[in-house]
Write a structure and sequence with these properties.
Layout: E1 3-10, E2 25-30, E3 32-34, E4 40-42, E5 47-54, H1 61-75, E6 85-92, E7 96-102, H2 110-118, H3 130-141, E8 153-159, H4 166-178, E9 181-188, H5 194-201, E10 207-210, H6 220-227, E11 229-234, E12 238-243, H7 246-264, E13 274-279, H8 297-305, H9 312-321, E14 336-342, H10 346-361, E15 364-369, E16 382-383, H11 388-400
Parallel strand pairs: 5-6, 5-8, 9-10, 12-13, 12-14, 14-15, 15-16
Antiparallel strand pairs: 1-8, 1-9, 2-11, 3-4, 6-7
Helix pairs in contact: 1-2, 3-4, 4-5, 7-11, 9-10
The protein binds 2-acetamido-2-deoxy-beta-D-glucopyranose (NAG) (10 copies).
């Protein structure tokens, strides 16, 4: 006998709202990490998960247990909590077994959810009413009254095979998808009809197949990766600083920078929620010394050394320590904070690491623009690539699609 897992992933408001203004955008990006043991874990995200579990007579009790264990191992990969992933389950066979089911708000910790799943026992029944399970999940568990606004909804149906009335299953799955649910189907064993899987998932890319219960474990990583979706809600305000050191760059590269800036500011930005400014270095050190400054040779030599020290770290430090994004400096409280640093050598990249990390801790999104385009990378930042035109257009793209940036972080 076979099992079938069906995932419904509802990306309810996947659109960037079109408007005169740069509205809140909801873009879904992968946000997962590899744990030490190479297990993919999926954190920093919220979604509603509805599991629809077939418990019909054709499933052997030990296989049912393997399915439960699989679900528990799968759920361990996610952040489960009241503001993170919430889980509901409905058990069905020839009818719904609500006594073995629970709703999204029933358990609010990972341990409780995994424990409750572990307590579910096999309840046989000679009919496979997959359509009823999907319908209940969609309307009574993941219905609009019960879910958090703009949080993705994931539904997971587990069945031991084709439903007797495939047409109804197709129709209910389709209603679920029309309600914003993206369906995933996982079939175990060679008895699962590809048509049934497709009718549920609605797309081959969301169909999973394994040959037996023992093989379920092998797909947890892939499945986690596939379902690891984060809802990114960025405010429609963006405060942007270009950050560079004229004295580090010299005139030629500073020309590159001014070209880059003029190409990369968003057109008509004042009407799109953007504020721009730039931070560069002031030049008290550049004017040289008066004759009274270096009475001793060693003073002169020491002062000379300051010309060889990149000034960019200091410029960044000023931006941070003087609270450049604060309301006092014209920043908006709810704005996305962006810094675009011009870095032209790996030496400078090393020297700015500490300051960049402090900016990142203030939730500033940091881009690296590199006039040399030589592959400088700084952890936690997005490096723009190509010539001046290409780097500018990438920056504009990221600024207008702020959630995309998460990919690189
Ligand atoms: C889930 O919530 C629905 C709607 O409130 C309710 O009718 C149903 O009984 C609940 N199901 C379970 C298993 O608690
Ligand atoms: C699971 O069952 C045990 C034993 O019946 C019970 O003590 C425990 O509270 C149950 N756990 C959950 C989460 O329902
Ligand atoms: C499924 O599991 C069996 C036994 O553990 C193994 O021999 C087989 O290679 C697995 N198949 C796949 C596709 O991983
Ligand atoms: C996760 O899926 C993406 C494609 O969606 C792939 O590029 C990436 O390598 C996968 N990650 C792992 C660790 O399998
Ligand atoms: C940002 O969005 C809010 C609500 O969607 C709207 O009221 C506000 O005018 C927008 N602000 C700008 C600058 O676009
Ligand atoms: C000149 O630069 C050095 C090194 O960056 C710094 O320690 C010193 O305070 C600066 N002098 C002035 C007058 O700003
Ligand atoms: C900022 O966002 C919070 C919640 O996201 C909201 O309550 C608050 O009114 C917003 N403040 C401004 C100034 O828009
Ligand atoms: C920085 O390091 C990368 C990788 O090590 C190297 O390819 C690149 O040429 C270096 N860039 C500069 C400007 O030194
Ligand atoms: C950064 O963002 C996180 C999550 O939104 C928030 O908890 C934290 O307080 C923010 N940090 C700062 C310095 O604003
Ligand atoms: C940048 O590269 C593009 C091709 O990718 C080219 O069309 C364009 O002329 C280049 N611009 C400059 C300023 O070099």
């Amino acid at each position: 006998m076979m099992w079938l897992l069906v995932f419904g992933l509802a990306l309810t408001q996947q659109v960037t709202l079109a408007s005169k203004y740069f509205q809140e955008s909801l873009i879904h990006v992968k946000r997962n990490t590899l744990a030490d043991n190479n297990n993919i874990i999926c954190d920093h995200q919220a979604f509603e998960l509805g599991i629809v579990l077939d418990s019909s007579a054709s499933i052997l009790p030990e296989d049912f247990t393997k399915g439960i264990k699989f679900l528990q191992d799968f759920l361990k990969r996610f952040d489960i909590g009241i503001d993170k992933v919430r889980v509901a389950i409905v058990v069905y066979s020839n009818n719904l077994h609500l006594e073995k089911s629970f709703n999204l708000s029933a358990y609010i910790t990972k341990d409780a959810v995994i424990g409750a799943i572990g307590n579910i026992t096999h309840a046989s029944g000679g009919y496979t009413r997959t359509w009823d399970g999907i319908s209940y999940m969609r309307s009574s568990q993941l219905g609009h009254q019960w879910v958090r606004p703009r949080v993705p909804k994931i539904g997971m149906v587990i069945t031991d095979g084709n439903s007797q009335e495939g047409r109804k299953t197709k129709s209910q799955a389709s209603i679920a998808r029309e309600n914003g649910i993206i369906m995933f189907a996982l079939g175990v064993g060679d008895m699962v009809g590809q048509t049934e899987l497709f009718n549920i998932a609605g797309d081959n890319s969301r169909i999973f197949r394994v040959e037996s219960y023992s093989n379920l474990t092998s797909i947890i990583n892939t499945l986690t990766n596939k379902t690891c979706v984060v809802t990114c809600t960025k405010p429609n305000l963006t405060d942007v600083y270009y950050v560079f050191s004229q004295s580090d760059l010299g005139l030629d590269k500073t020309r590159w920078v001014t070209d880059f800036i003029s190409l990369s500011i968003v057109n008509n930005y004042e009407n799109k929620g953007f504020k721009y400014d730039l931070r560069s270095d002031q030049c008290p050190n550049e004017s040289g010394f008066w004759l009274d400054a270096n009475k001793r040779e060693q003073d002169f030599r020491n002062n000379l050394k300051s010309y060889n020290v990149p000034k960019l770290p200091v410029v960044i430090q000023h931006l941070r320590s003087e609270a450049g994004y604060s309301e006092a400096k014209g920043g908006r409280r709810n704005a996305t904070k962006v810094a675009i640093m011009v870095v032209d050598s790996n030496t400078t990249a090393e020297l700015v690491l500490t300051e960049v990390n402090l900016l990142l801790h203030q939730n500033v999104t940091v881009f690296v623009a590199d006039p040399t385009n030589s592959g400088i990378t700084i952890r936690g930042t997005t490096t723009l690539k190509g010539n001046v035109t290409e780097q500018s257009s990438q920056l504009v793209y990221y600024l207008l699609n702020p959630c995309k940036v998460l990919k690189s972080m």
